[in-house]
Amino acid sequence: MACWVVMQDGKAVFIQVSMAANNSPSALEKEQAHPILTAMAEAIATTKRYAVVTGSNKGIGFEICRQLASKGIIVVLTARDEKKGFEALEKLKSDGLSDHVVFCQLDVVDPSSVASLADFIKSKFGRLDILV
Ligand SMILES: NC(=O)c1ccc[n+]([C@@H]2O[C@H](COP(=O)([O-])OP(=O)(O)OC[C@H]3O[C@@H](n4cnc5c(N)ncnc54)[C@H](OP(=O)(O)O)[C@@H]3O)[C@@H](O)[C@H]2O)c1
Q1: 3-state SS string over 5-72?
Q2: pTM for the complete prediction?
Q3: Which residues form the pocket of ligand 1, taking CB atoms under 6 Å from any ligand atom?
Q4: For 46-94, how does the pLDDT look when each residue is reduced to its tens digit (9 = 90+)?
Q5: Which of 52, 96, 58, 45 shows the shortest CA–CA distance to 74?
Q6: CA of 30 to the centre of ligand 1 (A)
Q7: I need a surface site. Which of 11, 23, 50, 102 has the fewest CB within 10 A?
Q8: DSSP string for 63-108
Q9: Domain 50-131 is in which class?
Q10: Which atom of ligand 1 is nearest to the CA of 56?
C-alpha cells in the first residue's frame, strides 16, 4: 500500500492506494490528512522557487521561461541584449505572467555580467533553485 498527501482545491488530502495481488493500484481512498501532514503539504505548495534561464529572449530558453512561470516559479529571463530581453519579457507579461517574470542582462561569456547576475539573485531572492 502507498500513501501520499496532495493539495486538492486548496486542501491537503491523504490518499491511500491499495495494491492488488498483481501489484497494480486497486482502490483510491481519500480522507482528511493529519494536521501536521496538511501543514507540510501546504508549506511545500506555497514555498516560492526561483529560476534563471540563460539565453532566454527567444527559442527554447524563452519557452522554458514561459513554462516555469506558468507553474508559479519566479523566473529570471536573461539575454545578452537588453532590448531583446525586455521585448521577450513584455511578451510573457502580456500572457498574464507579470508576477512571475523579471529580466536581468546576462552574457554568459562575460565574467562581469555573470557576477552582476549573481549579485542580482542574491539581493533580490537570497537563493536560486533552478539554473537552465
Ligand atoms: N532548437 C532545437 O531543436 C534544439 C535541439 C537540441 C539542442 N538545441 C540547443 O539548444 C540551445 C538553444 O537552442 P534554440 O533553438 O533555442 O536557439 P536560439 O533560438 O538561437 O536561441 C539561442 C539563445 O541563446 C542566446 N545566446 C547566444 N549566445 C549567448 C551568450 N553569449 N550569452 C547569453 N545568451 C546567448 C541567444 O541570444 P541572441 O538573441 O542575442 O543571439 C538566444 O537567446 C542551442 O545550444 C541549441 O544548439 C536546440
Answers
A1: EEEECCEEEEEEEEECCCCCEEEEEEEECCHHHHHHHHHHHHCCCEEEECCCCCHHHHHHHHHHHHCC
A2: 0.77
A3: 54-55, 57-61, 79-81, 84, 106-109
A4: 789 999 999 999 999 999 999 999 999 999 999 999 999 999 999 999 9
A5: 52
A6: 46
A7: 23
A8: HHHHHHHHTT-EEEEEESSHHHHHHHHHHHIIIIIGGGEEEEE--T
A9: alpha beta
A10: 43
Asked whether 12 and 41 are in contact (CB, 8 A), the reply is: yes
Domain map of the chain by residue range? 2-46, 50-131
Buried b (16+ CB within 10 A) or exposed e, 26-59: eeeeeeebeeebbeebbeeeeeeebbbbbbbbee
Q: Are 49 and 129 in contact (CB under 8 A)?
A: yes
For residues 67 and 132, the answer to whether their CB atoms sit within 8 Å is no
Mean pLDDT of the chain: 85
Going by their DSSP bridges, the two strands 25-32 and 11-19 should be labelled as antiparallel
Q: Which atom of ligand 1 is nearest to the CA of 106?
A: 33
Q: What pLDDT score does 123 carry?
A: 97
**Ligand 1: centre distance to CA 83 (Å):** 17
